[in-house]
Amino acid sequence: MKPVVGVDTGGTFTDFVVLEAEGLRIHKVPSTPEDPSEAVEQGLCDLGLKDKATLIHGTTVGTNAFLERKGGRVVLLTTAGFEDVLHIGRQTRGRLYDLFYRRPPDLVPPERRIGVRERIGPDGTVVTPLTADEVERVRRLVRAHDPEAVAVVFLFSYVNPTHEQAVRAGLADLGVPIFLSSEVFPEYREYERTVVTVLNAYLAPVMEGYLRRLQARVGGRLRVMTSTGGTVPAERAIREPIQTLLSGPAAGVLGARFLARRAGFDRLITLDMGGTSTDVSLIDGDVTVTRDVSLGGLPIGIPMIDVRSIGAGGGSIAWVDTGGALRVGPQSAGADPGPVCYGRGGQEVTVTDAHLFLGRIHPSFFLAGRMRLYPDLTEAALRRMAAPLGLSPEALAEGIVEVANASMERALRVISVERGYDPRDFVLFAFGGAGGLHACTLAARLGIQTVVSPPYAGIVSALGTLVAEPIWTYSQSLLVREDEVDDAVLQQVVGRLVEQGMAVLRQESIPAEDVRVTSFLQVRYLGQSYELLVPFGGDLRVALAAFQEMHRRRYGFERTDRPREVVGVHVRLTAPAPQPEVPTLPWDPASERAARLGETSLVHEGHRYRMRLYDRSALRAGAVLEGPAAVFDATATFFLPPSWTARVDPSGHLIARPA
Question: Could you tell me the pTM of the whole model?
Fold first, then answer.
């Protein structure tokens, strides 16, 4: 069996999980933000797998390029008179009461937005023909701007794409990648279609440069994680980089689902806290896919796993605002210099420093002792920050943790309570390098009775890339009332989209009999400006009933007197991926004593305790731990507060509950 390596690049660490004939191996190296491919190459060299493995990669390169506005130089070609759609948008203010609010700059400035004299009508008929002279005029203008990519967005091209295709043919000799809205996002709503197509073009030069460098560094076959929870070949990720925007968080959700099912849980809220950010999601039997996603103030209308991210991670920096309030994040110390305790020159106190000072992280056992920490540097930095605030360093450290907890609690309520779910009906599945340090406190605040900490919690996102299946998604706009369409028409649309996908699968040599097809409808009440995505198994009545229930759960009401409208059809094609075997631990309740590493002093909620320390690798099934306790492995730490107990299940999970 050729080794398969799942790689997740975070802001602080890059994680590796290797699937090979002998089982699973894990590894972790510091990230290299200037060029993430350096850390990937270093990790593969450490593992002895450079040029020898298939690589499946979750990356934030596209996300960072977008948020930092470091994408490519793009020219936008659009129907004459609609050059400013990208700028006008939906006329919403990001912060309504901020008198000094300035919206982020447009991805394409006015001088590079070119109007093209052509027009397609809403029924697909040609209103204004696109002439050869017009194509030549546009070609000269595009060449003068010397772009790195071109986005073409014409009115109603999702109905009739011929004009967009003609422009691409006329500009082909310029040697610049050209992206058509009729291929990238063939759906109605001009602004959203423009944003998605432009953003895809904006990210393409960055992603191509990164993935080409990565391929040159590591060799072998490369697949890339997508935001929908699937994987695609590197060449497709280069053509459709927008699909990778939230690939890292999506991998974490898939890894959590894979492990939770083996522990017997199928309703869970995930808490993925890394060094830079925290991602939360809800799984009710299966992952939740949404199209209602905004990033950096722009609507990203493509399907994505429903993940909410906040700027609170282990490396998030604590600071005091002008009003004297303690804040945490979104600025992060990252991997270099990192928290003060790393001893690499960092001067600003972080969440990790607070945990170290309070005793929840031990300098001798952090990452199984492979990384040295400097508690004296942390204490000095906390005292410097605490003095002008009139606080003790203990009070400041607890305040930092409390502020971070408040941010995460809000995010957890958004994806549960605000979506119509009672968090008490779920378990909290905590992972990432820092998730286990906050999980029990957050669960108590939400009324959640069970916290699950998986083995090697720090590399769950990398594991998620391994278990992710290849996925292809296709869509078509319809905009028809429920009485204007029937099952036969919808099945025809689904059939066309499936055949479109099968043509791509044949190119990738994937057998048709291995492909699983899932269909969805976008449905709304007539007159609404938003819609919900519901499964479609061939019966429109069943899909509409599911819409009613989903609308009631999400928004608190349903309408029986309002016609419904089918806005679009979506198809997802999935091929199987190899699933790793999770080893079963032998039964040995006495391992609790054998796994003890000693004791340390803990500060918790203003009180001091003696806390036991455990080596997770020595714990076996049936072991029961009583809080306060800290459990260490090679990737993460789990903190069990006073009045909590935890048991080890046969698959190595820590199942924690209030005593």
Answer: 0.88
Q: Which residue carries 């890894």 as its tokens?
A: 255
Distance CA(438)–CA(432), nearest Å, equals 11
DSSP character at residue 58: E
Instruction: State the Cα torsion 579-585-586-587 to the nearest 10°.
Output: -120
Burial label, 228 (beta-carbon count in 10 A; 0-12, 13-18, 19+): buried
Average pLDDT over residues 469-485: 90
Taking all residues of the chain, what is their mean pLDDT, rounded to a whole number? 92
Q: Residue 643: CA atoms inside 13 Å, Cβ hemisphere, count?
A: 7
Helix (H) or strand (E) holding 503: helix 487-507
Task: Give me the pLDDT at residue 207, please.
Answer: 94
Q: How far apart are CA 30 and CA 334, in angstroms?
A: 10
CA distances from 278 to 395, 409, 430, 432, 433 (A): 24, 11, 11, 9, 10
In whole angstroms, what is the distance from residue 401 CA to residue 407 CA? 10
**Phi, psi dihedrals of residue 419, rounded to the nearest 5°:** -100, 10
Distance of alpha carbon 174 from alpha carbon 143, whole angstroms: 7
d(CA 290, CA 508): 27
Rounded distance, CA 470 to CA 224, Å?
10
**What is each CA distance from 658 to 116, 402, 464, 613, 643, in whole angstroms?**
65, 20, 29, 19, 6
User: Is the predicted pLDDT of residue 614 greater than 70, yes or no?
Assistant: yes
What's the mean pLDDT in 67-78?
Answer: 92
Prior bond to 337 cis, omega within 30?
Answer: yes
Q: Beta-strand (E) ranges in 121-198? A: 126-128, 149-153, 178-180
- The helix (run of H) or strand (run of E) holding residue 457 is none
Per the CB < 8 A criterion, the answer to whether 378 and 340 are in contact is yes
Q: Residue type for 136, please? A: E
Assign 656 to helix, strand or coil: strand
Query: Over 90: is that where the pLDDT of 609 sits?
Result: yes
Q: How far is C-alpha 37 from the chain's CA centre? A: 19
336, pLDDT greater than 90:
no
Write the CA distances from 132 to 140, 176, 328, integer angstroms.
13, 20, 58
**Taking 70 as the threshold, does the pLDDT of residue 1 lie above it?**
no
Average pLDDT over residues 405-431: 95
Angle of helix 435-446 relative to helix 393-415, nearest 10 degrees, comes to 70
Domains along the sequence of the chain with CATH: 4-66+207-247 (3.30.420.40), 69-199 (3.40.50), 258-313+404-466 (3.30.420.40), 316-401 (no CATH), 469-574 (3.30.1490), 591-646 (no CATH)
pLDDT band at 581 (very low <50, low <70, confident <90, very high): confident
Residues above pLDDT 90, as percent of the chain: 71
